[in-house]
UniProtKB/TrEMBL annotation, chain A:
Residues 68-325 form the Periplasmic binding protein domain. InterPro entries: Bact_Solute-Bind_Prot2 (IPR050555), Peripla_BP_I (IPR028082), RhaS (IPR013459), SBP_2_dom (IPR025997). Its main location: other. It comes from Pendulispora brunnea. It holds the Pfam family Peripla_BP_4. The gene is rhaS. It is found in: Cell envelope. Belongs to the bacterial solute-binding protein 2 family. This is Rhamnose ABC transporter substrate-binding protein. Keywords: Signal. PROSITE patterns: PROKAR_LIPOPROTEIN. Residues 1-18 form the signal peptide.
From TrEMBL, chain B:
InterPro entries: ABC_transp_permease. The chain crosses the membrane at residues 38-61, 68-86, 92-112, 119-142, 162-190, 211-230, 242-260, 291-310. Signal peptide: none annotated. It comes from Pendulispora brunnea. The keyword Transmembrane applies. This is Autoinducer 2 import system permease protein LsrD. It is a multi-pass membrane protein.
Amino acid sequence: MNTSKTFISTFVTLSCTAALLTGCGKTTKSDSGGAPSASASAATNSAAPSASTAVANPSAPLAKDLKITFLPKKVNIPYFSVCETGAQKAAGSLGEQLKATGPSDASASSQVTYINTAAQQGQNALLIAANDSNAVAPALKAARARGMKVVAFDSDAAADARDVFINQAATEDIGVGQVKLISEAIKGSGEIAILSATANATNQNAWIAVMKKELAKPEYANVKLVDIAYGDDDDQISFTKTQGLLQAHPKLKGIISPTTIGVAAAARYLDSSEYKGKVAVTGVGTPNQLRKFIKNGTMTSFALWDPANLGYLATYAAVALASGQITGKPGEKFKAGDLGEYTIGPNSEVVLGPPIVFTKENIDKYDF
Amino acid sequence: MKARAFLRWETALFVLLLLIAIVGAARTDGGFLAGQNLFYLGLDIGEIAIMALPLTLVIVAAEIDLSVASVLGLSSALIGALWNAGWALETILPLVLLVGAVCGAFNGVLVTRMGLPSLAVTIGTLALYRGLALIVLGDHAVADFPATYTRFGTTPLPGTPIPYPIALFAMLAVVFGLLLHATAFGRAVFALGANEEAARFSGIRVKRNKELLFILSGVLSALAGIVYTFRFSSARADNGTGLELAVVAAVLLGGVSIFGGRGTIGGVILAVLVLGALRNVLILADTSTEVLTVVTGLLLLASVLAPAIIQGILNRFKRPIEGAPS
């Protein structure tokens, strides 16, 4: 069996050499300065009109018959289907062709094939909700180098890999709004807790920081944050953590859960427990998930942006980009049909606007 | 005998690949055959192709390794964690390959020394290695890798549409092809799969050979993890989740018998290309993701049924047709 030994050793050496082909010296984090790598090949990059050199012409006519690809985190998610209806509505009214495509799983890398395909098909613009801001960056840069405009929405891609980002809600608005809703629900005084997603979820942590700042204000002097639990965006864990919060804090009056999975689990637990109607819950959720709990009095209100408007605005931004009305520079303005005029903010972000507050009165107007 | 050559599974796969290319090119106005698209296609199948090579040997030996994608994830997580800790990539990469070897060796030891079925063992280590990956890196991503390395996952060989990972795969394919079809070790692998008892009595060191196979599988899965990490310049613990099924599918479609003892590296390479090309064409032609999944499933069923059908056809030819004048 000596042959096999030789083969294995040759083979391991071979693969090591392959991996080390570029190994000249030492490549460490410190000497690359932690700068993200520019992954699209430099050769193709030069062909792209980069945003910094292009000049916006606000009075340029809107191009017709543009080919736009809508790429959600994965297909068959109700939330993104609603985004898509808004995007289709905008595309229809502008005379563009919009098609939706996407992977069947929301893994970091599964969108890359679809980005490459869109570039290959010569699509004029891509609307993307990125699964992983960095994993999609090389493919997006290569696609932009071939002349495609990239609008990120819902979850951003790396800033140098897209033209603009349509942010569903300013961090400030969500945090402030959640505190206001829970305070109203507990009549302005009592202990509250937060049920978040994972301990390092970017969105949730930013919102929680705003909530803490807001709670320090004098008008919320009697509202006391006693605990933050993490349900890991898992229905079962969130359910159990809700139970744990109520057992650990007998005087608890309210729960804020700024995640769609957490808020539904918390509401389901309260609905089936003795605390129903005694402990309030609010959060960020979808009407279809929470309709039952609003109707039966488990919760009085929750907040979310309108996903249809998010898709609508993203499409208008894409068309404005492809027509040359905007280039993605902060300060540029564009019109978004029924939603009115928007201004591009710092970091090329466009904020959709304040979230909608859903209550018994208006929840039946929404279906997503 | 002539008829047999035409009825070979590899021939069928090759014809299928040609069909996909011809129909694909027609349906996408030649877009499928554009150099840039072939480059993307190559990138998309790189990791699966690399992992399919050792798995072919493992399945020919009548074992299975379902932990391949988790080893990929663990190696990706290690790259991220060690890079964050300030290690040099020149140290990290060989170390990651070594960890892959250890993962494979652990599978091998459980299967051979403990006499456990590899299906059960590697379903266990599928979860174990993925869990370790999450411990190593948690659920965040590391993305600040230098362009000197990431270009291997994002640019083609100068002047060609061939991605670096595919060039690497081509070298490895030659090595594995020779290993399985032109060495004593390869013959031992076939013997193991055909009849383990007989192999033992004829002096083949069953346990050691099987351990080597699992180690190979571990090392190449770690290598696939390196490729994956640089291709997306994103090291994550959940990278490649679910990929093991795509790899097993490619091996089985390649005509390797799940019961062992039969299969060729050539067939598996063709199968990887068929699955990749099919996926690429269907997405380019705007087919829905669901159709893609259904078509892949049907292809797999066809590959499992094919040997029986071919045997049936051959038997037909051997028997004189009843009622015919002899």
